[in-house]
What does this fold into?
Amino acid sequence: MSFQPSQFGSPSQMGVRPAAALSASFLTQAFTWMFAGLLLTAAVSAFVSGSEQLLRFAADFFLFAVIGQLALVVVISAGINKIGATVALGLFFVYAATLGLTVGLITAQYTLPSVATAFLSAGAMFGGAALYGATTKRSLVGIGGFLTMGVIGLIVASVVNIFLVSGPLGWIISFAGVAIFTVLTAYDVQRISSGDLAAQYGSMEKAAVIGALRLYLDFINIFLFLLRLFGNRR
It folds into this structure.
């Protein structure tokens, strides 16, 4: 379904909300692809964590995998209008599969109960934030800039901590990460349900892929930060 971008701004900026059925359709498509991506990541991660050879492979090529994953996110986000929704969706699943390698390597360092607890806790926090974003009458559009700055700050602090190896700074980064990506979940869900992404990208299909990618990243980051905070290492 195609949408004509408005010259006056997004639906949220204009104070316009789509019909309930259309809003639900936006969310259904985005969450469908998001959950499919998470299932693929979980399957690859479980397979990797159970294989010594794959764990060694993931460790040897960890940096290359991370760089490739970042490149895929940039290509999908910045190039979706050129590559189209179908290709972007395919790249999203490639991204989800490759992330399974790195997630498998990370989770293999923790006990299974810790991983399960972090996953369930992340699901509860993500679900609560998503519900708030979908139902609140309060516009969250104004916090987008602050959230972007928060994510950039997290990245910079994480890079700095690679060299400092500071335990207290690591805890602060993890707590901040959980908070920022939980709020981002509510923000992203509202942008999807309000039709902002559909208006920005000109079609429901493209909006569903971008929405799925953003929700997927929100959940994965909440999970990994929680695991870092409360996980018990093997």
